[in-house]
Amino acid sequence: MCHAHPIPPADSEAFEGRLIRALNEAGALLLTAIGHRTGLFEAMAGRPPMTSQAVAERTGLQERYVREWLGGMLVAGFLDADPDTGRYWLPQAHAELLTGSGPVNFAVYAQFISLLANVEDDVVRCFREGGGVPYSRYPRFQEVMASDSAQTVLPALFDAILPLAKGLPERLEYGIHVLDCACGRGRALMAMAERYPASRFVGYDLSQEAIDWARRETDRAGLTNLTFEVRDLSDFDVTAEPDAFDLVTTFDGIHDQARPRNLLKGIHRTLAPGGVYLVQDIHASSHHHLDRNHPLGVMLYAVSVSHCMTVSLAQGGEGLGTMWGRERALAYLEEAGFGAIEVYQLEHDIQNDYFVCRT
């Protein structure tokens, strides 16, 4: 007869404490997302202590909501306050991590919590019935991902990422043909097109919203060497133009594809002789137990369940998921035909691996 093994009391108490901390931290992240989107952190950064009324007037927001938000952020330890004067302030060390004044704005990432919570009912239905949540259910996802990319890809693009492929910056200066698959809003392409006017750039993405935004910004910037196209890359293995591009990039764009193997085979097909495929994707293991010490592991699995995996399954796809891992990534790249693959991590980016692949 099988007997249950209850959790020892000490372990149960410790776990209860962890759950309470988790609930509080989740609340802090929701308030952080609100503070980011309403400009409250930016309004308080570098400013002397202010009353809730002064903060509200500075931001043009409703004082009652601002007062309650200030209370939550104070209790969370994000703000300080003087109870005698009723004034609040954002410590400089905190402002550097919650606004654009420092190297990383963590308030950007807090938005993922509230964004993904919007599809909880859809995801629960998928747990019971199968299928997935379509991309159309995430109206702000491209906006938030563009903010993410602005902190991980754009600051390091020219000094750290492109130089991973030896000789690539020089080739871009001379003039080559570049494709970015799953380009989103195309901010990396815009930066490259401006930096390397002799090269030609193309971006493909499934999202009409993202491509429309990218085209507007490209026109506004007067970039004549850059074009965008709405394109489903599920059959790229047969529809890709052979030998068409000297450089192909994907920035965090493989793991949520419906058919990632087809995309990778298409990228191999469309690379010209001597071409380079440069990949940024999530740093993880393909084995769950090896992700237990990942600094963002729990968060990334939550993103996978509520977006990356389910968006792929909604298209009848593989459902690879955010945490597909380096081992599986290498196997897929080799299966696609890439024979020389180098893997790098960059100091500023704990979230991603960078692969330099050649045919």
From TrEMBL:
InterPro entries: Methyltranfer_dom, SAM-binding_MTase, SAM-dependent_MTases_sf, WH-like_DNA-bd_sf, WH_DNA-bd_sf, WHD_Rv2258c. Gene3D superfamilies: Vaccinia Virus protein VP39, Winged helix-like DNA-binding domain superfamily/Winged helix DNA-binding domain. It holds the Pfam family WHD_Rv2258c. GO terms for molecular function: methyltransferase activity. Residues 29-99 form the S-adenosylmethionine-dependent methyltransferase Rv2258c-like winged HTH domain. One of its GO terms (biological process) is methylation. Keywords: Methyltransferase, Transferase. SUPFAM superfamilies: S-adenosyl-L-methionine-dependent methyltransferases, Winged helix' DNA-binding domain. It comes from the Bacteria. Residues 175-283 form the Methyltransferase domain. PANTHER family: METHYLTRANSFERASE TYPE 11 (PTHR45128), S-ADENOSYLMETHIONINE-DEPENDENT METHYLTRANSFERASE RV2258C (PTHR45128:SF1). This is Methyltransferase domain-containing protein. It comes from Billgrantia pellis.
